[in-house]
Amino acid sequence: MRAITALLAKTIHALGGVIATLIMGTAIMSHAVAADIPAIYNSSCAACHDSGALNAPKKGDKVAWDTLKQKKGMPVLLNSVKSGMIQMPAGGLCEDCNDDSYRKLIEYMSK
Ligand code: HEC
């Protein structure tokens, strides 16, 4: 009886460890997504927005971005990236971006 109790206790302990690891892993991953805007920019948007290829508004061109934000507004800009434009592929080459990441990427490019 005692052996079984000990075994059970060990199993529960191990399971607890797995669950804790899963929870921590998720927390770390979602944190990485939120914090890694420059990395996402570099691997997706930079291909066009760094050099202004295909006439993309350039990163750091504050005037161009301010004009876009004033004329169209953030919701329209978000929609342009998500559904694509004339030259920009839908999603802007980011496969796991959500609205929040796109909004942050646009803010990042505006500076
Ligand atoms: C293959 C090139 C390319 C990539 C990659 C790209 N863009 Fe673009 N983007 C463009 C071009 C070109 C335009 C100008 C409009 C057009 O001709 O399609 C543009 C325009 C935009 C606009 C302005 C939309 C509007 O309504 O005027 C936003 C916002 C934008 N891009 C965000 C992003 C974000 C965020 C990413 C990365 C997740 C990204 N783009 C990746 C080429 C690209």
From TrEMBL:
What PROSITE patterns has UniProt attached to this entry?
CYTC
What region holds the Cytochrome c domain? 32-111
- Keyword terms: Electron transport, Heme, Iron, Metal-binding, Transport
Q: Does the keyword RNA-binding apply?
A: no
Example of a GO MF term:
heme binding
Instruction: Please indicate if the UniProt record lists Ion transport as a keyword.
Output: no
What protein name is recorded for this chain? Cytochrome c5 family protein
